[in-house]
């Protein structure tokens, strides 16, 4: 009898080891989905800036078309996150990637601002589906014990999309115009959809209780949700400011165009390299969510303050490295904390709502800095953002409860 029990235990241990080895393969298509949304958003944004004259875009129309992607995400991410809880993450991820491919294919005919705006809106709506569903699937497949490690890798691949998006977008447009860029986006999203369809396991739909509007308000106002979501919004807001204002600062310092663009690439590369390391240290218990998020946000605030104090080319690149490290610390820890404190049956809704918080931060950061810069100075706008981000870091340190191990 004892021998039988020992054999069962050995078989179970082998099964667990096989399962652990299978995790990277099942999550890899989700990394591709994260890369797709970042690559799609930033490659087209860069292309629009380069081709405004060729397709008759004024500054206002240019701004509206850029915003349509984010508007769709703000409205639809919580909706699709909840849908992934009801029908499962896999069909939402696959369907969203296919829809992204279809919207990108219509970009072949985007010869007017109206058609281009519709394409941009369609891509944003599609990304609203597979982005929160992918985050929810990463959380469920990795589990609380490995959430930091795999969210670090997921964020790293997104960061790679931010780095390569403008560079590849510019190269594709230079080679074959917008049709070449949209053809590449169609191919990438279709490949990611097929990969997800065949490689990602179908996660069972979990029974969940009926939630009222008051339940939703109570759950989203709890510290375990509100504080990490605020940290994610602050980090993303700083990223949005950096992407827009670092090249502007570089131009004001008389850096060549490639030098100004390289600053953003340095930031993204710094974040990409940081996230997997931080996630692994978190899972090993060497970094706590509370202290890590606070430290990441304080690093971001320090990088922004350095730009306000001493706007020099060397400071610009040093601040980009510091900002990238800070964003790379706060982002995987924020998502991992949400994954570890959310019941699996409502993981999609939580991730969708957290993504909504990030989109709000992404919109508000540049608005705050730009508004204060217009009224006072760019340095004043950067100081305001630095104080806000540092305040969010203090909130993490004071209010966030340690996660249960």
Query: How many domain regions?
Result: 2
The residue-averaged pLDDT reads 82
Which class of the largest domain in CATH terms?
Answer: Mainly Alpha
**Annotation, overall tally of beta strands:** 0
What does this structure look like?
With 405 residues, the protein is mainly α. It folds into 2 domains: 20-200, Growth Hormone, Chain: A, CATH 1.20.1250.20; 212-405, Growth Hormone, Chain: A. It has 12 helices and no strands. Helix 5 (147-199) packs across helix 8 and helix 7 packs antiparallel against helix 12 (378-399). The protein is globular. The two termini are 34 Å apart. 51% of the residues are buried. Residues 1-22 have low confidence and may be disordered.
List its salient traits.
single chain, Growth Hormone, Chain: A, disordered N terminus, 405 residues
What's the gist of this structure?
85% of the residues lie in helices and 0% in strands. By secondary structure, the protein is mainly α.
What is this structure's SSE topology?
Layout: H1 2-51, H2 59-87, H3 89-106, H4 113-142, H5 147-199, H6 213-220, H7 223-252, H8 257-283, H9 289-309, H10 313-341, H11 347-375, H12 378-399
Helix pairs in contact: 1-4, 1-5, 2-3, 2-4, 2-11, 3-4, 3-5, 4-5, 4-10, 4-11, 5-8, 5-10, 7-8, 7-9, 7-10, 7-11, 7-12, 8-10, 9-10, 9-12, 11-12
């Amino acid at each position: 009898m004892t021998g039988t029990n020992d054999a069962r235990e050995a078989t179970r241990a082998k099964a667990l080891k096989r399962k652990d080895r299978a995790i990277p393969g099942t999550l890899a298509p989700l990394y591709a989905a994260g890369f797709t949304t970042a690559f799609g958003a930033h490659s087209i944004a860069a292309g629009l800036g380069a081709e405004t004259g060729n397709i008759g875009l004024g500054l206002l129309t240019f701004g509206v078309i850029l915003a349509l992607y984010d508007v769709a995400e703000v409205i639809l991410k919580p909706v699709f996150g909840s849908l992934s809880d009801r029908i499962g993450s896999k069909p939402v991820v696959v369907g969203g990637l296919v829809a992204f491919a279809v919207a990108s294919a219509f970009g072949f005919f985007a010869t007017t601002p109206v058609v281009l705006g519709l394409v941009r809106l369609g891509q944003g709506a599609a990304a609203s589906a597979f982005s929160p569903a992918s985050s929810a699937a990463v959380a469920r497949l990795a589990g609380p014990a490995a959430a930091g490690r795999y969210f670090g890798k997921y964020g790293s691949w997104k960061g790679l999309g931010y780095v390569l998006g403008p560079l590849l977008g510019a190269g594709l447009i230079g080679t074959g115009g917008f049709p070449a860029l949209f053809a590449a986006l169609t191919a990438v999203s279709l490949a990611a959809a097929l990969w997800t369809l065949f490689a990602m396991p179908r996660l069972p739909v979990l029974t969940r209780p009926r939630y009222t509007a008051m339940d939703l308000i109570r759950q989203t106002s709890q510290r375990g949700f509100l504080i990490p979501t605020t940290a994610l919004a602050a980090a993303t807001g700083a990223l949005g400011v950096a992407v827009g204002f670092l090249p502007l600062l570089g131009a004001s310092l008389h850096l060549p165009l490639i030098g100004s663009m390289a600053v953003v690439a340095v930031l993204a590369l710094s974040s990409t390299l940081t996230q997997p390391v931080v996630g692994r240290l978190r899972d090993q218990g060497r970094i706590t969510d509370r202290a890590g998020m606070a430290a990441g946000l304080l690093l971001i605030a320090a990088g922004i303050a350095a730009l306000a104090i001493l706007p020099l080319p060397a400071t610009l690149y040093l601040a980009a490295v510091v900002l990238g490290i800070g964003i790379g610390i706060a982002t995987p820890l924020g998502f991992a904390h949400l994954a570890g404190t959310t019941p699996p049956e409502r993981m999609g809704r939580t991730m969708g709502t957290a993504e909504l918080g990030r989109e709000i931060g992404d919109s508000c950061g540049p608005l705050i800095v730009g508004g204060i810069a217009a009224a006072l100075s760019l340095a004043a706008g950067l100081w305001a953002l630095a104080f806000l981000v540092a305040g969010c870091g203090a909130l993490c340190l004071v209010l966030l409860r340690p996660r249960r191990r």
